[in-house]
Amino acid sequence: MNCQNENLYHVYNQGNNRRQIFFIDENYLFFLKKIRAFLLPHADFLAYSLMPNHFHFLIYMHSVDAPIPPPHLTNFRYKQIPQKLQKESDSSPKIRNFSESIAIMLRSYTRAINKQEGNSGSLFREKTKAKNGFDGKLWTGEKSITKDFSFAEGNDYATNCFHYIHENAKEANLVTKPEDYMYSSARDYAGLRKGTLCNQELAKKLLFI
Description:
alpha+beta
């Protein structure tokens, strides 16, 4: 996964062989906690959707390489470890890149789900994708839709991706309105929930929504 700072990325993966990855409500909530612990040190989330067999994130990368959070801060929302807490934990904290963080997060989640379901082996596809839009395709979980989308100046891929992520549950006939789906950021942007995972102010600034 080749990412750069100060860029937007559509990050996604699905269950291995399209298998289910979320089984009960607690699984979704557990995964969201993992996102906070492992991914927020690297990126601001602009949108997300957790579907029964895949997930989508739209993120703004601010730190491809970031300090590893101490275990007691795994639910802490931050861009970097506060200096005071850094000293308490480790005067020279280890650095982890985004690819490593998401791989570790998915392995940790897989272990918990395999234990819950009595399964073994890979839960997710081997490689998580991070598209910056220049390939001109949106991933739907089944196939790619070829359109002239790009994060390049003058193109609206990012805004289309933002809305696509929120429409995902409706398109899958899980809900009748995007904001009815509990496990996406659509409810937050609709003002129905005071979610803190997404940086809505930054999303509005970057995407003109």
